[in-house]
Design brief:
alpha/beta; seven-stranded mixed β-sheet; four-stranded parallel β-sheet; 21 helices; 11 strands; binds pyridoxal-5'-phosphate
């Protein structure tokens, strides 16, 4: 059994309490992130003057899917989502996507980082007065981690591949204590792990929050993203509708945990894991380099519940970068309006970052594969938005020239309407086991996990539910910590 370690370290916890008292930091519970109605009115009022990305500890209370979609002073409302019409998707199925842009940092990974950091903080395992928090990442998790560290007044080190977008590095230079660029691009996760070992062995006092094997990441998505999806379903499902499943790219295997939550509510629903065709690890044990920033690969994350994954699908990264132009260049948008995509939606297509476009294409593939119709609902997420990829549009403009109506027609026909069910695999029991077995080469051979642990993940009945059931205990620890800090009155 592996669950989140909640052993308390009283002396260090005292130091953490002193720090939060000095900085007036109150920590939200999972229950509050799921349901902001539980957040005290005083905090809601104070948020009225605070920007979404401001480094202000009160923004810990904006780690929720329910933020009002405004850059400053927003309160809370329903979960941010959009439904994508057949004019865009080419399938009658109802594809509904949750919007990540309205989290602080513009991506929901700030929640995954919270899920890893906070249990260690409130138990005293992590001492923010002496230790640095290290955030290994393929992009947004280290942004979220650096941001959460800044809110909690502790030092941070962000680690991400050098090939990632300029926007990420520009922002990190202002927020993270240190930013380490590892060799290669997006899919070079091994190099990130190597850097972690180097830091561990350096003698520095630091704690590594490895999203790829930390169950805090899994749990935050299971509980908070899963619940947000349930809330959306309650809102949109008519009496004749059926929820069919979620589709999620797997970077660290965090977001896809929301599928575990929904499958417990809808046992017939499916979980679809997607990745880049240029690096088809789940599909073919493959490797390669790709441009779908944020989804890493060449390994299976430890926290990916492969036993519960029904389909793997690979998306051509050419589709993603071409559609980024279609969705954002004036000629692309004009063409979409001409083809009947509602103008308001076209105006919102910058809510899709690269992996969001990949998720959309994976959802279309799933809908076509299962021949879904107008009463079938598929869910996915827009992890981040074009806010982080403007420089990529400029690069493509420089490389390929102006985006023309002819480009728009070709991209629309080829990548949206022409999307097929190729590069998909519905997983049988041995297929799932094959994907699980890949974990051995990263986690047991390289990263210190043991043979009994990898066996337990597959064979132990309660392995995943034991983690899922930890939320009440963690919330109780957070409440106790806030009470001991004496900041709630
Ligand atoms: C842009 C983007 N998309 C997708 C993902 C994958 O999400 P997860 O790590 O929860 O699997 C990430 C992860 O960092 C990301 O940054």
């Amino acid at each position: 059994m592996t669950t989140i370690d909640l052993t308390q370290h009283p002396e260090r916890r005292q130091r953490a309490l002193k720090r939060v008292r000095e900085r007036n930091i109150i920590i939200p519970t999972f229950a509050q992130m799921k349901d902001p109605a539980l957040i005290p009115d005083r905090i809601k009022q104070d948020l009225g003057s605070i920007g979404l990305w401001d480094v202000n500890p009160l923004n810990l209370f904006r780690i929720t899917w329910n933020n009002q979609p405004v850059p400053k002073g927003g309160a809370y409302g329903g979960v941010n989502y959009i439904e994508l019409p057949p004019s865009l998707t080419g399938t009658p199925a109802r594809i509904i996507v949750l919007v990540g842009k309205w989290f602080p940092t513009g991506a929901h990974k700030v929640g995954a980082a919270f899920g890893c950091l906070v249990p260690r903080l409130v138990t005293g395992q992590f001492d923010p007065t002496t230790q640095k928090a290290v955030w290994p990442s393929t992009g947004n998790y280290c942004r979220g981690g650096a941001y959460d560290s800044a809110l909690l007044a502790c030092e941070s080190i962000a680690i991400l591949p050098e090939g990632m977008s300029k926007e990420r590095f520009d922002w990190l230079s202002k927020i993270a204590g240190e930013t380490i660029k590892t060799p290669g691009s997006e899919s070079n996760v091994k190099e990130i792990f190597d850097k972690c070992w180097e830091l561990r062995n350096s003698g520095q006092d630091l704690m590594i929050f490895n999203q790829f094997d930390e169950f805090g990441n899994y749990l935050w998505h299971y509980e908070v993203t899963g619940h947000a999806m349930e809330e959306v379903l309650k809102q949109v499902m008519g009496p004749h509708d059926t929820y069919r499943g979620i589709v999620s790219a797997t970077g660290s295997g965090g977001t896809i945990a929301s599928g575990d939550y929904l499958k417990q509510l809808f046992p017939a629903s499916k979980i679809v894991a997607s990745e880049a065709l240029q690096c088809p690890t789940l599909l073919q044990n493959g490797f390669g380099t790709h441009r779908i920033e944020g989804i890493g690969d060449k390994h299976v994350p430890w926290i990916h519940n492969t036993k519960n994954t029904d389909i793997v699908v690979a998306i051509d990264d050419n589709a993603v970068v071409d559609l980024a132009r279609l969705f954002n260049e004036p000629a692309g948008r004009a063409y979409l309006v001409k083809k009947g995509v509602p103008e308001a939606l076209v105006g919102d297509l910058d809510l899709f970052g690269f992996s969001s476009i990949s998720n959309l294409l994976s959802a279309i593939k799933m809908a076509k594969y299962y021949e879904l119709g107008e009463h079938d609902i598929v869910l996915s997420v827009l992890t981040d938005s074009m806010e982080l990829y403007g420089s990529r549009l400029v690069e493509m403009h420089q490389e390929f020239g102006e985006y023309t109506p002819a480009n728009a027609a070709a991209d629309f026909a080829r990548w949206l309407k022409g999307q097929t069910t190729d590069s998909m695999l519905e997983l049988s029991y041995p297929d799932r086991k094959r994907v699980h077995n890949l974990k051995y080469f990263t986690w047991v051979e390289q990263q210190g996990k043991t043979y009994p642990e990898i066996q337990a993940q597959w064979y132990e009945q309660d392995y995943w539910t034991d983690v899922q059931n930890q939320v009440p205990e963690i919330d109780a620890l957070i409440e106790e910590f806030n009470a001991d800090a004496g900041l709630l009155s």
